[in-house]
Amino acid sequence: MTELLVADSFLVANGKVRGLELHRDRFVRSCAAAGVAAERFWDEQIGRLPGFGRWFPRFELKAPGELAVQLRPAPPIGGRVRVAVHDGPDPRTAPRVKGPDLELLGKLKESAADRADEILLLDADGTVLEAAYSAVVWWEDDALCFPEPDRPLLPSVTAQLLRRIAASQGVEVAEHSLTPEALQNTTEAWLVNALHGIRPIHAWGPSAIDPLPNSHSALWQSHLESLATRLP
C-alpha cells in the first residue's frame, strides 16, 4: 500500500465549504514540509469539485510525491456523541500532520465501537488532547475553551472557525489542559470536525445519557454553517 503522507478532507454541501482557505493552507504547508509544492494542484482540483449535492473529498499526498483527490459522497451527519478514553499513550507518529496516522486512528476508533462513537487521546500528563477524528472544545460557564496550542494537536480548521465566531460574538476564549474527569464536569463539551461541525458529548463509555437541555451546540452550529462560502 502506498504511504499516505498528507491528507485533507472537508464537507462540500451544494457547492459551499466552511473554512476552505484554512484547509488549503493546512494541506499546502504539510505538503511543502514533505518537499512537494501543492498550491497549483489544489487550486486546479478545487475548481473541478461538483457544485451540487453533498461530498467529502479527500486531497492526498502519497509517497513518493503523488498528489491525488478522492471524490467521495459525504457520510451522514452525526448528532450527539458518546466517547471513551484511549487506555495508553498517544499512539500517533505525526500528530500535527493529517494523513500518516489516519489508518491507525481508524483502527483505534473501531476498537471502541462497542462502547463509544469516538475515542479521546491523552497527552503524557494524562490531559485530553483530541479525539481520533475530531478536536475537543468545551465550555466553562461563559468561556469557550481549547487545549493549549503547544500540545501535540492537529491544527483543526473547525476549532479555528469557532475561535473566529467567539471573537465576533465577544465570547471569552480560554486555553488550558483538563483531565478526562475534569472534562466530564464542564458546562458542556464538544467534538468538532469538518464533516459534522459540532457534536456535543452526551455520554462517556457505558454511562447514562445526559439530555443536555441547555446545549449551546445548535446556535453555534448555525454560526458555523453561516461561514460556508461558494467554491471558486
UniProtKB/TrEMBL annotation:
N-terminal signal peptide: none
Any one Gene Ontology molecular-function term assigned to this protein's record: transaminase activity
Keyword Thylakoid appears in the UniProt entry: no
Domain of life: Bacteria
UniProt-listed SUPFAM superfamilies: D-aminoacid aminotransferase-like PLP-dependent enzymes
One Pfam entry name: Aminotran_4
Coiled coil, from the record: none
Keywords attached to this entry: Aminotransferase, Transferase
Family: Belongs to the class-IV pyridoxal-phosphate-dependent aminotransferase family.
Record PANTHER family: AMINO-ACID AMINOTRANSFERASE (PTHR42743), AMINODEOXYCHORISMATE LYASE (PTHR42743:SF11)
Protein name listed in UniProt: Class IV aminotransferase
Originating organism: Kribbella speibonae
Species classification: Bacteria, Bacillati, Actinomycetota, Actinomycetes, Propionibacteriales
